[in-house]
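Problem: given the chain below (293 residues), write out its structure.
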Amino acid sequence: MNQFLLQQGTSRELERFPHLIEFALKRINTVQLDEFYQEAPDLIRVYYIIEGKFEWQIQDQNHTLYPGDVLLVLPKQKLMGQERILNVGTLCWLKIKVSNSSNQPSMSKWSGLTHPDIQQIWRTLNIKHGRSIMKLKDAGALFNAIYVELMNREIGHYTRINSMLAELFIQFTRNIINQSTSTRDFPQIFLKLDQTLRQNLGHQWTVEEMAAIADMGTTTFTEKVKNYSGFSPLNYLINIRISEAIKQLKKCDANVTEIALSTGFYSSQHFSTTFKKLTGYTPSQFRKKNLSE
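Solution.
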């Protein structure tokens, strides 16, 4: 799919769907100030990550989203990028209107779900709201199918689209109910690795050293990290270093060379080249832009 933005009131594709407030796909090519910060008291927001890594805060809790992750944000929950920065990547999202009177998804008019099912979905989502991120089977295909139906508007598209919207809620609820202690593969190992790397970014880590922390062979380790995070181990390390460098550029007066060395880059030139490749700015340009906002 190419980039698009469909909004209620301005997009004819949504005229028959008063409950579907916004449907969009956006490709973010450079790190930028967060434009997703908002409170939505009457909306359920569903985000699907296609490419990149997004570090967001939901109700002041930090979350990191990788390709294939689906995030569900309930009404009144605050959503914003960590450090008020929106990362590089591609994502798709839906905003669905909820009932003002009961503050529950007003699905009965369009979803085909029974009232008991709607109550069960809403109760589960609210009780387990901390488990708002997960991988849903065929989520990408589902978002693409909704887009195709909206664009083509063939006979039966109203029924099909509403059925697919309901399917998102069904899958999310079933996954929450069926999950045990975690929604992802090897989370504790990856968390330990992430913490260890962050505690010593100045060290010149090798894949072999990182694999040893995870107590795995390099081949298995590399495969698992890539499947879990969307990045190779070394690229994941670079992303951590750039993320820490962004924080330092915003919060301290250290010069670029000091920041480069403290975050594990060989030189200020190596740092600047990598930083511009990932963010679109040199470190000095980024600091100047951030201070001028």
